[in-house]
Amino acid sequence: MAVYGFFLFPNTPSTTTAPYLSTEERALAISRVPEVDERTPISWSFLKRCFMSWYWYGFVLLWIIAGETESFSSNSLLALYMKAHPTHKYTVSQLNDYPTGVPAVGIVSTLFWATLTDFMGGKRYLVGYWIGITGIITSAMILAPGSTTAMHFAAYYWAGSVYACQATFFAWANDVLRYEEDSLRAVVIASMNMGSNAVNAWWSIIFYSANLAPKFTVRCNSFGL
To answer: Where are the alpha helices (DSSP H) in the chain?
Structure first.
């Protein structure tokens, strides 16, 4: 992958030497990136401008929430459910093979939503509605009394579709910030990653611990809940 990236990663529109891009395609890429005056990033005025803008708070909070929604399908919960199944014992090959359907759904979903939101003029927020609906319905399917094994599998596979939010929301942030200075966009994008990872570091341990399988319910008795 490192060798592939060294020779074929497109870099930026103005510096790319990627062999698969024609002269016309390079010119098109450059024309789609507006000229923005770059300011010195290391200054109090920059920090004030950054942390007083809605871009930082809006997109960082958005990705923290969306990232933990994605966490529902990215923490191998289907495999944990299968291993903790109360009546059925799955083989090693089944434990390895069946959960791969979750990211497979995610790949299809990402391609679908990326294409659809581009076709609709960049309405990336539509994915937010999708992952919200998906989270509610799939959770209900898993937690419903008398839910069957088929319902659990269907819920986990469906939950894989929330993978689409990652590519879509980062594209949304880049779209919105294309007229801002590069340093501000860099801080917002990096903060989105940092915020989600900081929360996910403990989120999965509390809510998706292996000992909570197969239902992953948490009772906070110490808080009287």
So the answer is: 2-8, 23-31, 44-51, 54-74, 77-83, 92-97, 101-119, 126-143, 149-159, 164-176, 182-207
Fill in the amino acid letter for 162: V
150 burial (CB, 10 Å; 0-12 / 13-18 / 19+) is: exposed
Closest CA to 35 of 14, 56, 10: 14
| Contact of 8 with 28, CB cutoff 8 Å | no
Neighbouring C-beta atoms of residue 8, cutoff 10 Å: 11
User: 185 with 174: CB under 8 angstroms?
Assistant: yes
Which domains are assigned to the chain? 1-33 (no CATH), 49-223 (1.20.1250)
Three-class SS of residue 15? coil
pLDDT per residue as tens, the chain (225 positions): 889 888 888 888 888 888 899 999 999 988 887 776 666 566 778 888 888 889 999 999 999 999 888 887 778 889 999 998 888 899 999 999 999 999 999 999 999 999 999 898 888 999 999 999 999 999 999 999 888 999 999 999 999 999 999 999 999 998 888 888 888 888 899 999 999 989 988 888 888 888 888 888 876 554 444
